[in-house]
Design a protein that fits this description.
- There is one protein chain.
- This protein has about 190 residues and is an alpha+beta fold.
- About 45% of the residues lie in helices and about 25% in strands.
- The protein has helices spanning about 1-5, 10-40, 45, 50-65, 85-105, 155-165; strands spanning about 50, 70-75, 80-85, 110-120, 120-130, 165-170, 180-185.
- A five-stranded mixed β-sheet has the order 2-4-5-7-6.
- Strand 4 and strand 5 (about 120-130) form a beta hairpin.
- The relative contact order is 0.13.
Amino acid sequence: FPHLGRQHDHDRELYDDLELVAPQADRCRDILRALVRTGTREFHDAALALPLEQFVLDCADRFRLLRPSAELDLALAATPAKIRATDDLRYSLINVLNNAWEASRARGADRIELGAGVDDAQAFIDVRDFGAGLTLDGRATFYTTKEHGLGLGLALASATAERHHGQLIAEPADGGGTRTRLVLPLVKEVS
């Protein structure tokens, strides 16, 4: 992309667009490389024990590259707790963040909330949107209500959570919108 920017530096709007696309294209390249690595390694060999806060901050940074206009409010509990972090788990959380942002945007907001902590010896990661919320029965069914999309993202995120011996739960948020909670087991430290 740098060579395209130099060729089109006289067209400010195109140059600005290229500046925006370049980090996103790099991110796509990194995602594809990581997916190839994930496909060639066993699940447990690929997992790293990472502090929960580090994992969430990394995902937040990656999400901000994907959606630079999103307003992401962070609320992370200070904890030394660790989780088994894999590329598929990272992409699942980023997908949940992206879906939340799209739900908020559909209601005219750019804001979503991301929180994490430990509860009952499990890690949790909460994503809250300010969208229309869940259906009247209050149960989350992981299929799309969007005009465009396949509806696979949340279903895959749920399957990934289960593969990690966790779960993905969606429920109405206080004040409207939806809170999606990713619950994961903690890595037990060997002493």
